[in-house]
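User: Just a sanity check before I run the rest of the batch. Below are the C-alpha cells for the first item. I only need the designed sequence back.
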C-alpha cells in the first residue's frame, strides 16, 4: 500500500531533505527512521522535491510504501506516535491513502516557495528570515519579477553541474509583498524549480532593490544562460517550501 505524508520542518538543524552517505542529520532519514520504528517495518520515503541545508518547509509532501494496510480510523494515533519519535523540528501533519502509482515528486503539478526578508533585527526570526539593512525598493523588485514569469530557460539562476535534464521552468505566479507584521515576502509558484533557483532569483532582485542593477536586468541575465551573470544566492534560512498541488483523483477515500 502507498501513502502520502504531509509534513513541516524547520531546516536549521538539518543537512537538507535528501539522505546523504556521510550524514544522519537529514529530514528524509529522520522520517524513514520514525516510520520504521512505529510501523515495525523498513520504510523508504520519496519527497516531492529537494531542499538544501537550512531551508524550511510547510505543506511538504512525501510518499512511502507499507506492507500492511493502515487503519485510517486510528490516523490521529499513528500521527501522534510518529511525532513522538521525531525531533521537535519536524512534524507530520496528515496521512493519505493513494494509488500504488502515485508519486510525490513526479505527480506534483506545481510547487510553491516563499522567501522572507526582515528590515530590522527581529529575535523571533533569527535563522528564519534574511535581515537586509538599508534602502530597498519593493516596486523595482516587483518590476523585475515580470521578466521571470512564464516558460523560460533559467540556466542562469541554477547551481552549476546539476543533474537536471532541462533548465526550462514555467513560473506561474511571483510577487513581492509586505506582510502585516512588516516582513517582506517573495512568493513564487512554478511547475518545477532548479537547485538554488529561488535563492539566486531573490539575491539578484535584492540587488535591484538596492539600486545595484536595473530592474530590467533579470531579462538580460536569463537570456545570457550564464550563472556568473546573476547576483549572489540569498541565505538558505529565509527560504520556505510552502506546498505542492496534485490532482484530487490521486487520493483514495480512506
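Assistant: Here's the designed sequence for the first item:
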Amino acid at each position: 500500500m502507498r501513502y502520502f505524508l504531509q509534513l513541516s520542518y524547520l531546516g536549521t538543524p538539518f543537512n537538507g531533505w535528501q539522505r546523504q552517505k556521510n550524514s544522519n542529520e537529514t529530514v528524509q532519514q529522520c522520517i524513514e527512521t520514525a516510520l520504521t520504528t512505529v510501523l515495525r517495518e523498513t520504510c523508504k520515503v520519496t519527497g516531492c522535491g529537494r531542499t538544501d541545508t537550512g531551508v524550511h518547509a510547510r505543506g511538504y509532501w512525501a510518499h512511502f510504501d507499507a506492507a500492511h494496510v493502515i487503519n485510517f480510523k486510528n490516523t490521529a494515533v499513528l500521527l501522534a506516535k510518529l511525532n513522538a519519535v521525531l525531533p521537535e523540528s519536524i512534524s507530520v501533519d496528515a496521512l493519505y491513502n493513494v494509488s500504488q502509482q502515485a508519486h510525490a515528486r513526479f505527480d506534483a503539478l506545481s510547487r510553491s516557495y516563499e522567501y522572507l526578508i526582515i528590515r530590522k533585527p527581529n529575535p523571533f526570526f533569527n535563522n528564519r528570515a534574511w535581515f537586509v539593512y538599508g534602502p530597498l525598493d519593493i516596486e523595482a523588485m516587483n518590476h523585475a519579477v515580470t521578466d521571470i514569469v512564464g516558460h523560460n530557460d533559467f540556466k542562469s539562476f541554477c547551481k552549476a553541474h546539476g543533474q537536471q535534464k532541462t533548465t526550462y521552468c514555467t513560473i506561474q505566479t511571483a510577487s513581492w509583498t509586505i506582510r502585516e507584521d512588516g516582513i517582506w515576502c517573495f512568493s513564487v509558484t512554478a511547475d518545477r524549480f532548479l537547485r538554488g533557483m529561488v535563492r539566486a532569483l531573490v539575491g539578484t532582485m535584492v540587488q535591484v532593490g538596492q539600486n545595484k542593477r536595473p530592474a530590467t536586468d533579470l531579462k538580460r541575465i536569463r537570456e545570457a544562460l550564464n550563472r556568473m551573470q546573476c547576483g549572489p544566492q540569498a541565505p538558505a534560512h529565509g527560504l520556505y517550501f510552502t506546498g505542492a498541488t496534485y490532482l484530487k483523483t490521486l487520493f483514495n477515500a480512506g
